[in-house]
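job 3f2a | input accepted
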Amino acid sequence: MRAEIDRRAMALLSSGHLATDFANGALPALLPFLRDRFSLSYTAVGAVVLASQASSSLIQPLFGMWSDRRGAMWLLPAGVALGGVGIALASDAPSYWLVLLLVLVSGVGSAAFHPEGSKFAGFVSGRRRASGMAWFSIGGNLGYALGPIATTALIAVFGLRGGLILAGPSLVVAAAFLAGAPYLRGFAPEPGAAPARAGEDDPFAMKLLLGVIALRSVAWFGLITFVPLWEVSLGHSKSHGNHLLALMLFAGGTGTLLLGPLADRFGRRPVLLGSVAATGPLVLVFVLVGGLPGAIALALIGACIVGTFGVTMVMGQEYMPRRVGTASGLVIGLSVGLGGVAAVALGRLADATSLRTALFVAAAAPMLAIVFAVLLPSRKARRRLEPAAEIGWLP
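job 3f2a | predicted structure (395 res):
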């Protein structure tokens, strides 16, 4: 097994992640324009978001299982292209129902790419799997941040038809995947290969990990949804709330590059446990203290949650070494799918009580996740059970 990350392969995979999440990030920027064009209610706007989240998250495990059983490297170029073309065509669709259909198609492209992309990111990372997954994740972070910026600029200049240009990055990267397929294929195990680990999949550990991810997503999506509204309720401007949200997202990208190498050096479980334990109190600092300390707390929350996304991805693959694609689909699908449901549930709670109460629940969720994180098997315990500690493949 390689000791270091293959930079050429990782650059290609991270670019694919960037292009796919670039399309995902374009959708929120399109919504105000689509609402005006079709005179949509807020419920109809919410249905567009639901179509995107449902198609991009709920079926990811199915693509992962497909990949594990048959091998599906073609999902890399196909998923990237479908994600970008779907959202580009949705920007200039002549009817609301066609918008829904095209957003659904774009989500399917995202669902197709992510499990296979995450799986290959593990293949090309050698023994530095958490660091490699961090580099893979940073591509998605950048793509999601660039999507709304590019979308707004294109529509401001060319109108909604300018949104067709959004397909460009995805098509370029899809072509790069086709050209680089022979190189990437060299990292995949031979057909019929079995993992070199002495142990089998660990379903109990995977369930614990999914519990951590689900509860972490409650806090994350709650903050993404309500940080700007909370700031407005305190008398601040909408732009102030959006700036704080941008700070949290940017800090998340930085945290990805810091916590991945730390997990390789000190272990996945300690890094994940520390980040989960810190998240709840930091949310309380944001809500109860606010001001500069609250802004710093938001930045640290972004680093803790987004920074450990790659770590949980690697842990999921290690807990299910015989079904790496399925594990990848479960980790990503659960993060996005349950996060969207949590945002709706917290919104209803805020309507029934107060926004402060909803944010307190968002703070409590990662505190409960500490219990699941503590129960996760340590790296040393797994080594005692599995002499071949590193994932490899034998014919």
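job 3f2a | The radius of gyration is 20 Å.
job 3f2a | closed
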